[in-house]
Amino acid sequence: EPIEKSFQLTTTTEQDSYLKAPKYIEFVVVVDNRMFRKYSNDSNAIRTRVCEIVNIANKLYRPLNVRIALTGLEIWSHGDEINVQSDADATSNLFEKWRETILLPRKKNDNAQLLTDIDFNGATVGLAAVGSICNSKNSAAIVQDHNSRTSMMASSMAHELGHNLGIHHDTTACNCYSNSCIMSPEIGDDPLNEFSSCSLQEHQRYLINNMPQCLLNKPLSTDIVAPAVL
């Protein structure tokens, strides 16, 4: 059998310093009107659910030295601000544009996700641009509220954010101890709870090549959204 090369990266002092620095994502979640109505127009219930999902996703990112700080939660209680539709590509494009032109001017953020109760076409439950973190045009993702379990939703949230952070889908050559790798192309009945060796390498390579600066900015504790019910 062929011997595979071990994963090695040659880094400059600047890149090495960047890699070792803790990373923070100032993260905004937007909840569409369908999801608002799904939870009986109860903003507190939605707030609690979103905080629980983000908290789990944050734990999943600890091995990457990345912290997810929920710095904004917007609920479209009076109607959607974009045309949320079953075509995931169209919805993603519209949400990216909305974030760039409407959200960013009034709420600084590194990344935003739209949670929606619409059923996307086919088996799609989420969509995100790869390697777009810190980009004003497309550092965003959309995720369908496809499961009542917060752990399942956290898997989807972490998966789409992984794409933004430069990580592609795992292949059959990738593995993780739990066999539930976060960047698996499909999600089954159990939550995905670990990044594979492929994901860790790809993420590190992306950071070294791009060094996205917004991740170095630590948010103030006063900027972080707290759950409504502790």
Automatic annotation (TrEMBL):
One Pfam assignment: Reprolysin
Zinc in keyword set: yes
InterPro entries: MetalloPept_cat_dom_sf, Peptidase_M12B, Reprolysin_adamalysin
Domain of life: Eukaryota
S-S bonds: C134-C214, C174-C198, C176-C181
Main location: secreted
Catalytic residues as annotated in Swiss-Prot or TrEMBL: E160
UniProt keyword list: Disulfide bond, Metal-binding, Secreted, Zinc
GO MF annotations in UniProt: metal ion binding; metalloendopeptidase activity
Metal-binding as UniProt keyword: yes
Residues annotated as binding Zn(2+): H159, H163, H169
Cellular localization per UniProt: Secreted
Protein name as it appears in the record: Metalloproteinase
Lineage of source species: Eukaryota, Metazoa, Chordata, Craniata, Vertebrata
